[in-house]
Prior knowledge:
Helix content is about 5%, strand content about 25%. By secondary structure, it is mainly beta.
Amino acid sequence: xxxxxxxxxxxxxxxxxxxxxxxxxxxxxxxxxxxxxxxxxxxxxxxxxxxxxxxxxxxxxxxxxxxxxxxxxxxxxxxxxxxxxxxxxxxxxxxxxxxxxxxxxxxxxxxxxxxxxxxxxxxxxxxxxxxxxxxxxxxxxxxxxxxxxxxxxxxxxxxxxxxxxxxxxxxxxxxxxxxxxx
Length: 182
């Protein structure tokens, strides 16, 4: 079973002059010419659980493009300022090989193979529909996609089977003393 820790991780990369100078030799970086923009860098976000990332592909922050995770650190600059190729900041590694198989339908980040949407299993080699996309669990539960199935677990402070969760404080405790104001 593969458990994904962050549901959605939003990252806004504010490219400082330090990052700019580190990567200037690899690929030319452009600075954002729109000085009146609310963003000084590039908009970039990761959704590791659902298997995609998004970023702006030009100067405008009005439209974002979604990509499979396998496009991260692949040597091709897909995002406007190249945020998808910042291997140090994204913690891209090549140490996800297990049992002689590579992380083929995903990306290796910090030693963990994160799968593209539609893949799962060890190193993302098995096709797998993400049943959690259909939101089968209670609104107070977390859905974990597993190979060929899924599990629902109530959030802390709630109990139930994951399909129906109720708050622990919703039911009155008969042993609890109640004070009356007179």
